[in-house]
Write a structure and sequence with these properties.
The complex is a heterodimer of chains A (137) and B (244). Chain A has 137 residues and is an all-alpha fold. Chain A is built from four helices and no strands. Chain A is rod-shaped and about 105 Å long. Chain B has helices at 2-8, 24-31, 50-56, 69-83, 103-112, 135-152, 168-176, 183-193, 217-235, and strands at 11-17, 38-43, 61-63, 88-91, 117-121, 164-166, 198-202. The two termini of chain B are 26 Å apart. Classes of the chains: A mainly alpha (137), B alpha/beta (244). The interface between A and B is medium-sized, with 12 and 15 residues.
Chain lengths: 137, 244
Amino acid sequence: MDISINLKIFLVIGSFFYIFYTIKELLKNDLQTSFVTFYFVSTSGLIVSLLTPKLVGELTKILGFEKISNMVFCITIFILFYIVFKLTIKLSKEQERTVHLTQELSILKNKINKVLEEKEKEENNIKKEKNKKEVKK
Amino acid sequence: MSGKSKKEKKILLIIPAYNEEANILKVCKELDNYEQYDYVVINDGSKDNTLKILKENNINHIDLVFNLGIGGAMQTGYKYAYQNGYDVAVQLDGDGQHDPEYIKKITDVVINENIDICIGTRYLDKTSSEFQSTFMRRLGKDIISVIIKLFYGVKVTDPTSGFRAVNKDVIEKFAKKYPIEYPEPESTSEMLRQGYKVKEVSVSMNERQGGVTSINFVKSIAYMIKVPLAIILRRLKGIEKGGK
């Protein structure tokens, strides 16, 4: 029913490393807090559950899992799916923003080019008129 | 009557172009014969000489800084139409498949018949079009057509046709939101959902005059799964009555 001591040590050490890593990345890369908080909380939950096997054992029975490890992996997979889904939504929104920005920028470029062309024509006309006047003089 | 109202209406032809160096100049030269229409070519990050040709020949164009795909390119055109106050926008492929002779036919429907979107299709009258497309393409459009009929109650023979005219209301809608991946069937179903009127007229289409088509077998299969799913999911939002 219980997780083997070797696996428990491995998971606890792994989780701690992961927490330190996320904190380090948060400080270094200025990541959005909401992203890191989620990983931080879920990993902390894993450590707590590994350190309090009785509580988790009871939960395993209530939910109908055969082994604690099965429940832990199952919950982890659900969490990962949730994270991936959230990222997909975020990615879609970011993609939409990029498309709009690209379009607006490209239309602006078109407008600027037209203005510059008109300005150039005007300048050329002014030059021509000046030349004509000078020739007359 | 139609001639008079047409003079008052500002019509923009939007021509999306991706690697169309073989066709684009020919298409634009042909359009120069139709002075009543303005046109803008959207160069969708072409890797060939399309941009060079557009610049050298002083063709009105918008050069997208990234490749956005057909949906992103078309939406750029609708934004341009919206910002410049056009009354009708017509999508016209840059590969020469669409015959400019038929532009008047589809814009007249939008201007005179109180229709929001007019789709030019080659399948309505089989005798009028010499070029009837490939089997896969026809199968794809038939499946989508059946799904639109089932879920939206409207028969659209060719919801995949890129030859279409839209009025000012739809220009504004498309300028704000337009599907990126499979724009034609998705935008048609979205407009039907919002209560806009769609009509089809029969047109004749040419075979591609040059270049390479972007559709292959794997893409066709993905298309036939993704597009029906997107159309059905959109229907779940519910039909907006009098959404205009």
